[in-house]
Structure formats: C-alpha cells, structure tokens
Write a structure and sequence with these properties.
Largest sheet: 7 strands, parallel
Strand order of the largest sheet: 4-2-6-1-7-8-9
Helix content: 25-40%
Number of helices: 9
Distance between the termini: 35 Å
Radius of gyration: 17 Å
C-alpha cells in the first residue's frame, strides 16, 4: 500500500487527527511518510493548514498541499469565489504518485466528504482514488447519525469498484452513549469493511510526543498499530 486516500463521512469528524495518527504509527514502524492535502480551504497563505497539523503531531513527514483557498467552503466553490484555478483530480493523483516514488507511504487527505467537488467538472476525491488505484480509509463519527453517512459513502465506493480499507472512529467520547456503543458493532456491518481504530476525543490536543507514543494503540495492525476491535467492542459494547 504505497498510497492511502483518507476521507470522512463529513466535516469535523476527526479526519486530520486520524491522518496524523496513521502517519505516526507508520513512522513508528520505520516507514517514510508523506502527507498530501488535496485542497486546503479556510486558511490564509500565511496560516498553517491540515498537512502542517499532521506534521506537528506525527513528526518527520513530508507535508504538502496541491492548492489552498481562503474561504472555508467546498474546494470548487472556494476556488471560484477566490478567482483561482480549481484543483483537478489528475493534479492530486500526479502529486501523490510523485511522492510515492520517494516515500513508503503517501496519505492523501481530502476536504470534507468523498463527493465534495473540487472543480466545475464535478471531480472529487473518489476520482483521485480511482486514478491512483488506491484504497480508501473512511473516518466516521461515533454517535447517532453516523450509520447513514457511513453506509452512503461505502456504497459509493463500491459502485466505483474502489477498495474501502476500513473505518476509523475519529473521536471516541470519554463517556460513550448507547448509540456510540452500538455503533462499534454496526459500523462494520453497514460499511462492509472492518473497524480499524478509534481515536480518543481530544487526541489532537495532546503534546506531540504523547500523541506519537499513543497513536499505534488507537489503530489496528493493518494501520501499523496494536488496537484490537474485538477487545474494544467487548469493553465498549452495550
């Protein structure tokens, strides 16, 4: 797996922190890592973006963006309103492919969900994954409402014959409610893919050394971690 595309069921589900955790676990396993943000929105040219945040938390990664736009909108809309050229899926795929010649693992982080539009032609992160023949990791929220968005995303990936590697819960609450506990079993069922980890709420606020030390325990062996879905489900089940 030279390239892994990371998407979310929507915004604010913990996608960037999950990307950082995957990067940290890979680094701890001795792999070289690059992080590519397909389209960064909502930041000025002098501000730190999501790729920078991944590097801050994870450590020695190559962090880069294809483009950034100042308003916190879908990339296609943000590009149009800023009067800037939009990002095309082929540009993202080409940048990722180049990074893959120089790194063991390239993490391509999208903006928002799988079908958020990059350009007026309707290009999306799903097109990037297709161009790269890359598996997709889906970051989902823990609580009520997550099953619908998770299943819709999984169905779209299957309709495009793309490989859904698994699902990671981007923010697991300190005191999970009944819906969250039930979703530990239900997320793999509705997605048709394994649950590959759960990050504790507030993980992104940890000091970077603590984040790096803890990250492998949040992720399954498929992501260079030690997290066990059966043990977690047994502990957190209803």
């Amino acid at each position: 797996m030279a390239v892994l595309v990371i998407t979310g069921t929507g915004t604010e589900v913990g996608k960037t922190v999950t990307t950082a955790a995957v990067a940290a676990a890979a680094l701890a396993a001795g792999r070289s890592v690059a992080v590519l943000k397909a389209a960064q929105t909502g930041v000025r040219p002098d501000e730190r973006g999501d790729a920078d945040e991944v590097a801050r938390l994870a450590g020695d990664v190559t962090a880069t963006e294809v483009a950034r736009f100042p308003e916190p909108l879908a990339p296609g809309t943000a590009a149009r309103r800023a009067g800037l050229p939009p990002v095309a899926p082929r540009e993202v795929a080409q940048a990722a492919a180049k990074l893959a010649t120089e790194h063991d693992l390239v993490l391509v982080e999208g903006a928002g969900g799988l079908l958020v539009r990059f350009d007026e032609a309707g290009g999306t992160l799903a097109d990037v994954a297709e161009l790269l023949s890359a598996p997709v990791l889906l970051v989902a929220s823990a609580g009520l409402g997550t099953l619908n968005t998770t299943e819709l995303t999984a169905r779209e990936l299957r309709s495009r014959r793309l490989d859904l590697l698994g699902v990671v819960i981007g923010s697991w609450p300190d005191s999970p409610d009944l819906a969250s506990r039930c979703n530990v079993a239900d997320l793999p069922e509705v997605s048709g893919a394994p649950l590959l980890g759960a990050l504790p709420a507030g993980a992104g606020a940890l000091p970077p050394p603590a984040f790096r030390a803890a990250a492998p325990a949040w992720l399954a062996p498929r992501l260079d971690g030690t997290w066990d879905a059966e043990v977690f489900g047994g502990r957190e089940g209803p």
